[in-house]
Structures are given as C-alpha cells and as structure tokens.
Amino acid sequence: AQAELNQCDAAFVCVPSPMAEGGSCDLAAINDVFAWLNVPLAIIRSTVPPGTTEKIAGLYPRASSGRGNVVFVPEFIGEGVNAPYAQMKQPPFLIIGGRPKAREHAGQVLAQIYNSECEFVYTDATTAEVAKYAENLFIALKVSWANDLYDICQKVGTDFGQMMNAVTHDYRIGRSHTHVYPDNRGWAGKCLPKDLFALLSVVGNETAPLLGMLIAANEIHRGRNV
Fold first, then answer.
1. Residue 86 and residue 206: Cα distance in Å, rounded?
2. Is 191 a catalytic residue?
C-alpha cells in the first residue's frame, strides 16, 4: 500500500493526533507517515501544533520539487448534533498554509476536488495551524459561556431557553453552540479537549491565561452533569 501511495502526485495525511501524557499533542502517527511517504506534495489535514508543518517541510526533500512541499489544510467538519460542515458537499472556504510554491500546488490539487465557490485562503503554515486552534478555542469559549449562563439562570430563577433566544437575536452573538445539555455539560468530544490542552502545552498559562481558565471552567461544568 505504501508503494502504491508513493506513486500519487499528492497525498492527504489524515491520521490521529491524540493527546499525549501531560496534554501535549502526540505526533507519533504523523511522524510514522512521513518516515515513508514519498510524493511531490503532502497535505496535512490532522490538527498539529504551530510550527509542525514547517518543521516537517524542512526535513522532507523530494527530487521533483525540493524542500518545502508540505502544506497544512485544517478541516472544520466539527462534532455534535447535526454539525453543519458535515452536511456540505464542499466547505465554503479552505485555509491552505505552507511555503508559496507548495501552497500554490495544493490549490491546484484542491481545485480539482472543490469548485470555485470554495474560497482558498492562502497563508504560511504556522498561521494556518494557529487558525485551526483559534476556531476550537472560540467554540469552547462559546460553549462555556452558554453553560455559565445556564447556571446563572438557574440561580436567579429565570428560563434559560427564553433568555438565550432573546440574546442570540443580536447578530454579533449568533445561535451556534448555545444548547446546554443537563446530562452532558460543558465541552468534550474528540477534538476540543485534546486541541486546547495541546495549545496550552505549547504557549503556557502566562501567554494564554483565558485558555487556562477556560479549561478549568470546563472541568467545573463537566462535574455538574445530571
């Protein structure tokens, strides 16, 4: 199978990047792939810490294109009830992060998969990696915000659903991720915990105090499951 894959013009790397001991991102599966992968272009879809793609690109020479032929294209499918991107035939945008020639090549490959309604957003690889973590951080923040408001409404004796319906009429807030489930409080799943802990392990509490407090708040919310 590896020999057949290495006959391709491009390869998508979609392997697990789970939480390692201590909260960091375990890159073992990704490193295992790049130990044998030998194609003109590698497109990483797995979520990886900032700097990972550029590091791999610097160690991934190929005679056909030289160093740097690795890009990071984060996916935003999401989890939970009826995740919107999971229902789409194609996403409204793709972030393509890498060195200029590599990301141009990736754009040519992806243009054969998605039509021109999908906007390609070109950046360097580290910017794309941070953007992926930024999305998960914002979603977790919004879930925690809704969970705090759920408890606030319980405390003061008002209806959470009516309150949330009222406040989300403000277009700046929006309705996504505002359901609160009494038997499944806070945020969980395959992505948010591992990715937020991974980001915190890279930058630390001093750099991102809100991120650290968000993780602590989620532990409290999760402990309130009915």
1. 35
2. yes
Question: Of the residues 14, 118, 153, 191, which is catalytic?
Answer: 191
pLDDT tens figures, 4-35: 999 999 999 999 999 998 999 999 999 999 99
Q: Give the residue from 122, 124, 63, 113 showing the smallest Cα distance to 91.
A: 113
Q: What is the largest CA-CA distance in the chain?
A: 68
- What distance in Å separates the CA atoms of residue 117 and residue 219, rounded to the nearest whole number? 40
Residue pair 25/198 in contact by the 8 Å Cβ criterion: yes
Mean pLDDT value across residues 89-100? 94
pTM (2 decimals)?
0.92
Tokens at 66, concatenated = 């030289």
